[in-house]
Amino acid sequence: MHPIQMVDLKRQYHKIKKEVDEAVLNVIESTAFINGKPVQEFAINLSSYLGIRHVIPCANGTDALQIAMMALDLKPGDEVITPSFTFIATTEVIALLRLTPVFVEVDQKTFCMDPKALEKAITPRTKAIVPVHLYGHAAPLDEILTIAENHNLVVIEDNAQAIGGDYFSKKIASPPSADRRIASAPPRKTGTLGHIGTTSFFPSKNLGAYGDGGAIFTDDDALADKMKMIANHGQRKRYYYEMVGCNSRLDTLQAAVLNIKLKHLDEYIRARQAVADFYDNAFADNPTIVTPHRASYCTHVFHQYTLVLNDVDRDGLVAFLAEHKIPSMIYYPVPGHHQQMFSHYETANVSLPVTDWLTERVISLPIHTEMDKEQLEFIASKVLEFVNR
Description:
Blueprint: H1 9-15, H2 17-30, H3 37-50, E1 54-58, H4 61-70, E2 79-83, H5 89-96, E3 100-104, H6 115-121, E4 126-129, H7 141-150, E5 154-158, E6 166-167, E7 171-172, E8 181-182, E9 188-189, E10 196-200, E11 214-218, H8 221-231, E12 235-237, E13 240-241, H9 252-262, H10 265-283, E14 289-290, E15 305-309, H11 314-323, H12 353-359, E16 362-365, H13 373-387
Parallel strand pairs: 2-3, 2-4, 4-5, 5-10
Antiparallel strand pairs: 1-11, 6-9, 7-8, 10-11, 12-13, 14-15, 15-16
């Protein structure tokens, strides 16, 4: 049996080695390491895949969120609502820009933003909402977009964990106060329904580079133009700076790799879904294990496969699996509203019982594109051996 890893990037690479090696060598031969042709090609290809007008590549997913918020001209103290149950980057950039993070509850089944909690958290200082499509499952955007429209708020989708996911909706964000546009019958891709979408190409992501990378999406021409400038030192024309920006570029080598891997993204998603199906079936009859929910409004792309444990010693399970060379992870053990970095915010002093309950019970098992039946049977058998003690 192959060694079990949370994500086996080496085996994935060997399947596309010839394509990747050729693409990387072409970049090195061209010496166009910054803003080379593959960067523009990737932006066009990803735009076509997502069905959105503009893709702005950048250096990483955290920068993508920061640039999106910078483009909204928010003022210090303006409030941005987001889940506490997420990776720190989502809330970190809010504080970095001297905005005020407002933490809200998540749904116990989907792990994503609870629309009822969102509506209760809105104040006159609220300017934006950042729903997170956690673990590969989409947040309930229909309800979130309706709330945003009613309160004249901007929606930035954090799509770092769900790129390639489908969302079945007739809603699509339009500028605040404008008439709502209606999407056509086919599903929209997550990250394209809000005013702005962001993603990360961290190597372990479903669409991962071989280093850092990120991107921003929008159908709004004016926002796209502004975000392109912000990502390039605030300039449209070289050495003429119209606004304060930053230096955030997707380098050419990463774009070359991503161009190859984008062609395989749907295949990768299907492989992850097959792994999830196996786990679901293996754990279906065990009352102490709650398998991931799959809402009817979206497809789950399973960036992570996350269980909720009832009356199980989670730390004991982690140690037991490790003894059998099975990795596992806790995403995330400390939610944002309990992090020291936010302790001085009054908005961090909130009660989020569902979030706290989940952080004590979630555990993520290995899931990736190269898993085989032998590995899956071994993992499932060991999980069940421990919880059935």
